[in-house]
Amino acid sequence: MTSTIYNNSYDIAAVMLCICCIFYFIMSKRIHHFKHTLYAALCVCVFSGSLSNILAGYFAKSKINLAANISISLYFLVNVLTMYVFGLYVQCLSGHLINRRKNFFLMYSIPAVIAFCLILVNFFFHFLFYYDTDCNYIRNNSFLILHTLVMFYLGHTIFVLLRNATFIQKQKILYLFSGLAFVITGIVVQILFRQLQIQLFTEAVMLSLMAIVFENASLEVDTELNVYKRKVFLEFYKTACDMKSQMTLIAVSLVNTEQLLSTLSSEEKTVAFRTVCEKISKLVGHNNVYAYTTEKYAIMLERNKIKNYSIAENDYLIALEAMFNQSWTVENKKIYFNALVTVIHLPEDTDNVTLDSAFHRGRDLNFTDSNMILRNNEDVNIIRKRTRMLNAVRRACENRSFIVYYQPIWSVDSQSFVSAEALVRMDDTELGFIPPDEFISAAEEYGLISNLGEIVLEKVCEFYANYHPEQYGIKWIELNVSPYQLGDANIVQKFARLLHKYNVPVSFINLELTETVDVFRNSIFNDTLKQLKDYGFTFSMDDYGTGYSNLANLMSNNYKTVKIDKSLLWKATDKAGMDFLMITVNQLKSIKLQVLQEGVETKEQLDIITSFGGNLIQGYYFSKPLSDIDFIAYCKRFAG
Q: Which 3 state secondary structure label does DSSP give 363?
């Protein structure tokens, strides 16, 4: 046994640092979370341990034997508890505590309980440490048991960090290991030089570092919505997915915000969104709600709280629906929110389901029966399929692997092929051939249509530069433009750059707009159309006769050609159908428009449309869509 005189200066510094950390913790406005509770417990432990060691030294000098022994016993107990709590804190940061049950905490607490029992027994039998009757501090060799228990927690913490390093941000890992290295250095120094009580000081320094990095409320909380920020959610969601934790994500997307909030000021909008977050937080717990965007919110719950995808069988979903079916009062204005809710069970639902797709609002939502629509299991499968489609479109955009085919267009007037429609096709390495309506709608829905359109135009320009089809009588190419592309303010510059790059005359490209473009008309679309027209592009209206357009729009001088939808021709099997088609063609020709009939497959159909005065013919009667090489060969044969 040995007796040592200790220097408590570092403990005094540790007390001061702990007071600063506790004050910072109290003053910070944070959302209650188990992690924060553990940090507060750490601050109390280090503070109590430092103060106990100081008091032990004071009582020893004052020859108060009993008080000195009580203080030093408390010091060593708190020392073990600090490593115990710190281990839980690190596991909380790494996501290791997600879905942990009581058995884990009981097992993990065993070394701390052993330490408590040893210190309690030691108070009476002095086999570890004690102050003798002269108040000299005595430490026995069996004291190494306490060191072993401390090292168990320290070793387990390092093991958890190393094992879950891929699940934690590299910067956080760096901070944690730096702090741990500092603490371990303090422990080693204190073991080698017993008179230096430096361990708790190094722990207090690490607490300060943790306050800045892990307990900084401004980095975690969206101050306007008073919920966790998107960054915190993404970290937590990734960790839960990587660790295959049994969790449930409830993705809430407010759908009608643009129309609904147009009458509110910016301050009232903020109040409205914060009110939604507050009500959701009261329902599921504040620490479970995250802001994905201002109008989209994520709720993360343990799996056992949401059993399936049905509203009727889940209390949280019932309450959520009831909440949205009530009116919301914002500054004496009564409003209703429409919400789309998607339930994603981790880990089985995460395969091919991106977060963006889970929050995606989609189209054609019907809120007649309720202000909340819940996506069921079938809807999640649709999302999964849509995500695979989205990934395929992204791959095709990145690899520029879209294929352009050309379907010839016959001129009745010149009895020759004068044009062709450029038709984009997609053959994915994973999904195989995908119908155009599926991948084009996916590109439109997820904002990739501009990229797709540019690729198609560039391939058409390359086709012109490689083959010069004008020498075979091809005067222009019909190129489809999605209404969503016209929302791109830089579309004219992008198109002009490609034409200039391949030396393609603007007259060679005729842009096909669907009838639905008139639904999208606003100042931006009108300005874009004017800029395209001023640059020299001409336009055709596609799918005429499907219900949107009227003659007033056609008389706007924006169009030179109108493509009649094939359904009108295919329905011309009786007098009523033929009369309707004839009237349609006559109306178009009366306002000096060229009439292009698509879908001509038989000689009978050809005779019908030409007898009514159709100028241009497209369809399988003449040719299916052809590759660029086959199209040129086809044109050569007829030109020759």
A: coil
Q: Decide which of 469 and 138 is more confident.
A: 469
| Contact predicate 555/516, CB 8 Å | no
In this predicted structure, the answer to whether residue 191 has a pLDDT above a threshold of 80 is: no
Give alpha helix (H) positions in 425-550. Answer: 436-445, 449-467, 491-502, 523-535
Residue 47 CA to residue 25 CA, distance in Å, equals: 14
**Distance (Å, rounded) from C-alpha 54 to C-alpha 11?**
7
Q: Which of 445, 562, 570, 557 is CA-nearest to residue 515?
A: 562
Write down all domains in the chain, each with its CATH number in brackets: 2-215 (1.20.1070.10), 220-375 (3.30.70.270), 391-639 (3.20.20.450)
Q: Is 169 helix (H, G, I), strand (E, B) or coil?
A: coil
3-state secondary structure of 554: helix
Q: How far is CA 58 from its chain centroid?
A: 57
- Between the CA atoms of 312, 317, 319 and 323, what dihedral angle is there, to the nearest 10 degrees? -120
Q: How far is CA 610 from CA 410, 569, 596, in A?
A: 11, 12, 10
Strands across the sheet containing 2-3: 2-3, 137-139, 129-131
Q: What CA–CA distance (Å, rounded) separates 154 from 145?
A: 14
Cβ atoms of 142 and 127 within 8 Å: the answer is yes
- Secondary structure of 292-339 as H, E, C letters: EECCEEEEEEEHHHCCCCCCCCCHHHHHHHHHHCCCEEECCEEECCCE
CB count in 10 Å sphere of residue 334: 8
**Segments in 95-215 forming alpha helices (H):** 102-125, 144-163, 170-192, 199-213
Spatial separation of the C-alpha atoms in residues 628 and 406, rounded to whole Å: 7
Q: How far apart are CA 116 and CA 352, in angstroms?
A: 50
Q: Find out whether 305 and 316 touch, Cβ atoms under 8 Å.
A: yes
- What is the value of pTM for the model shown? 0.65
Q: How far apart are CA 260 and CA 279, in angstroms?
A: 19
d(Cα 433, Cα 403) in Å, to the nearest integer? 11
Residue 1 has pLDDT above 50, yes or no: no
Q: At what angle do helices 65-94 and 144-163 cross, to 10 degrees?
A: 10
C-beta atoms surrounding 479 within 10 Å:
22
**Bridge partners (DSSP) listed for residue 497:** none
Q: Rounded CA gap, 420 and 74, in Å?
A: 88
Rounded CA separation 428/465 (Å): 27
Q: What is the CA radius of gyration of the chain?
A: 36
* Summary mean pLDDT of the chain: 86
- Residue 90 in tokens: 């690190």
Question: Token match 């944690």: residue?
Answer: 176
Mean pLDDT of 376-385: 76
Residue 435 identity? P
For the residues 75-93, what does the mean pLDDT come to?
Answer: 90
pLDDT beyond 90 at 18: yes
In whole angstroms, give the CA distance from residue 29 to residue 24.
10
Q: State how far the alpha carbon of 34 is from the alpha carbons of 37, 124, 286, in Å.
A: 5, 36, 12
| 602 secondary structure, DSSP code | S
Cβ contacts of residue 517 below 8 Å, gap of 6+?
A: 483, 486, 525
Taken as a whole, the chain contains a residue count of: 640
Neighbours of 425 (CB within 10 A): 15
Calculate helix-pair angle for 523-535, 491-502, nearest 10 degrees: 20
